[in-house]
Amino acid sequence: MTHNTPLFPRPLHDLSGRGRLRVMTVAQLRSHGVTTSETNEQCRPGGPWQQLLPGVVLLHPGPPTSEERLHAVLMYAARERGTGVPAQPGAGGGHAPAYPDAMITGLAALTLHGFSSTPPLPSLDAIDVLVPRLRRLRSTGCARIVRSAALPAPEQVTGLPVAPVARALADAVAELADAGIVRRLMTEAVRGAHCEPAAVVRELNQARLLSRPHVVDAVESLLAEGRALAEDRLYRMVREYGLPDPVWNVDLRLPGGPYLGGLDAYWPDQAVALELDTRAPRQDDDALWSEYARKREHLERLGITVVHITPRKLRDSLEQQATVVRTALMASADREPAAYVVVLPR
User: Fold this and answer.
1) CB within 8 A of 188, min separation 6: which ones?
2) Exposure winner among 34, 145, 306, 316, fewest CB in 10 A?
3) Residue numbers of the domain that contains 283
4) Residue 204 clears pLDDT 80, i.e. is over it
């Protein structure tokens, strides 16, 4: 072999050429005829390649791009297939994921999801990657391993497997001690319609983060933000779909009797009540749901129809929810008159 003879056959040059991802695993290099000793020689100090992570090689000198770092982290963390060669990103052959049992999470995932309050990818010292709990991996270099007993279904963002926003947010919060940053991330998650507050709280609860005071404070702001957005959508639903105006944010009471509960909207002439279901899934969720159910049953015994709407339904199917309310209002003409109740501002 002369000094100018390439250490790999032509196909490897095609894979690592201009416009191609120039990062590969040692197993992939072997499949192209590059031995381990040849790889080590190419990765020597000052050589044309460099080892970016254990078993992952960057096929050019100089710093990696953000895209190369993301793929390298996934290559390092992904479970290898039966052939021992992880699939190349975008490889053909069905819809199997290129990186089995691995996905980007944490701040990098939020940036990929389009968050503006997260750092740009080049400024992140480490990229969080989510793997099954029993995987034998350690954090190293730019790869920070996050373990989970059950992996969520990844979302494809720019061709990469990325954790859903709620899970990525929980993994990011687990590493953050700054209350202001945590609050900004949670606020953007809701304002940007990336996910519902309930999904965020569920992930934070499962990660056992709700015992941290700065996280609890941020959750209170998150729930308030989520309710405000849901109320705005509710006002818009009534206005845009021509529903009669209700009385907003009221308490109901029997004359001289007990308190019946608070409502987000009430149509007295039709005896139709509407309640936004903004419960946060905490450990006492069953008890809270029982309270909702008792109130609903009590009102319906009095002849009042109760419509429950979730913020997610208002976001995703506003017209359908308007139809549900309109149907309840029209059906009031066929019901027995409801009991008289006192309506008070909340």
Assistant:
1) 115, 116, 117, 194
2) 316
3) 242-345
4) yes
